[in-house]
Structure prediction request, 285 residues.
Amino acid sequence: MSTVARWFVERRVGVMTGIAIAGSSAGALVISPVANQLILAYGWRTSYIIIGVTALVIIVSVAQLLKRPAPQGSQAQYDTDDTKSFTNKSELRQYTFEESTRTRQFWLACGAFICFGICEYSIMVHIVPHGIVLGLSPTSATSVLVVFGAFSIPSRIIIGNTVDKFGSRRVLTIGFISILMALLWLQIAKEPWMLYLFAAVFAFGIASGVVTLSTIIVELFGIMSHGTLLGILNLTACIGCAIGPVLTGWLFDMSANYMTAFLVSAIIAATGLALTILITSTKTI
Prediction:
């Protein structure tokens, strides 16, 4: 077992990341019916203000409770020695920000996560209108997102545990395969159960990308510039998130259906898969 794999397994970094990120899916499941009731009672403008203020108060309040756990016994020394061992291994040379941005692996990861963002938000924004175009009622079409949210919670925890065992690149590869399969299935999915199956598989693929966004940086470049590199990688994913819905909407306007748009998303998912496969050991350009 490599040093990075051993460190991840001992620290349970992946599964802890998965559990933390699963909270966003749980929140989405909770807030959706609440938002619906608020909109019915107060309208969408007032509802957004209520939700925004409530979220601000809760997030800021809970953030004040975050702190490092007190070390017990010799745990503090173990932590220090273990971290030094981790960071001093030549196998895991710590890359500076400048060194990281001169590697092909970094830019391959950025390209892969742009593809990931396009695929994710093309579906999140347009799957309900797609269901309505197919003849589903608004309630049935919306339930596809509910299924996605329900499967996202266990998927992210399972994916986190899998990262600890097999590494981020392999998990991201499996994630893109799942996204690709789901998007191809969407080409023939016409019935509600077929869309629900799509949502379950797609949720697993999206969970793979969301969880590995942070952990793949550690595996490739260490922890020296983790925050900055994660910010850039997340920015590239957000660029994809911005492109995806606009591109899908434009293709729908051109063809009057979502088949072409979702096929393009499948091609983009295949591109992300290829970029992920090309990510190997880190070498400076």
In short: Residues 3-278 form a domain with the Growth Hormone; Chain: A; fold (CATH 1.20.1250.20). The two ends are 27 Å apart (CA to CA). The mean pLDDT is 83.
